[in-house]
Amino acid sequence: MKVAPTWVRRPLTVAVVLGLSLLLSLAPLLLLAGAVLSPLLPGRWRPLRLLAFLLVYLVLELAALVTAFVLWYLSGFGWQLRSPTYQAIHYAVLRRVLHGAVVAARWLFRLRIRTDGLGWSPLDDGVPGSENAMLVLSRHAGAGDSLLLVETLMNRDHLRRPRIVLKDTLQLDPVADVYLNRLPSAFLTSGGPGLAEQVGRLARGLGREDALLIFPEGGNFTAGRRQRAIDSLRGKGLDTEAGRAEQMHNVLPPRPGGVVAALAAAPHADVVFVAHTGLEHLSSARDVWRGLPMDADVLMRWDFVPAAEVPRGREAQTAWLFERWAEMDRWVAQNRTPVG
Prior knowledge:
It is built from 12 helices and 7 strands. The chain is α/β, with parallel strands linked by helices and 340 residues long. The protein has a 7-stranded mixed β-sheet, with helices on both faces.
């Protein structure tokens, strides 16, 4: 799927703002309808909870888009948007939007986010190396995992400035489109040329407050994607990597190209591997409906590797990445919470 160019998307963003304003004006009626329907449908007030979260999300979306327009105007119609001051303001707005969404999810869906005691985050205050640039490599599974991770990187405990590698189709979300195109980000087209080079360019100049976030699997885990990834590795003659991927049953095999490019562009950066479990059963809109209210724990583990301990050279880094992903696979298998 090819995303429309910016000059097409921006008028659509204005239309979205008008549409959201109209929809929110109907919020009392929508909430009343949700309250009436909830006792008639399975789940504990599922329609009302989901509708309430949707309305909170729409309020945050609308506020962020209106703020983006104000910032564009104040910056001289976009002239100073890339200046440090306006970059900091955009990060601050995005931080508050994500925090609001996560707080709403925790309250409405009884979602609990915990960090495994065996893992630790070098982003915490007082931890040696916490002020170094970071390359964050995360598992990708389930609805909302990227939102939770970015919010964690940006919250008041960490205050990182994330540079995010993500699919170009996420520009269909107006807030992601506007804000991440103003901030350092890389929207990648699946199967497009020069993907690793784009990641490498994004990694250049990583500072002590920056965190480059990559999802090396390239998408949410499903059994079908896992098998297709294994077949693709074999088709490319990468039998060793295919054999390793066959031993991993809870994660997709990592794609090393972007990671290797990022490490080459920012050899001074420490690396953080993020494993998580709790949302992998929510891979479609139907799954989200069935899974609410969740009343579930999301367990996260952060494993820190200082820059000095990162292997050098593509072959060594590829083998290292597969080894760490195999560890992640075992951790997920041991910590996965049964659904239902």
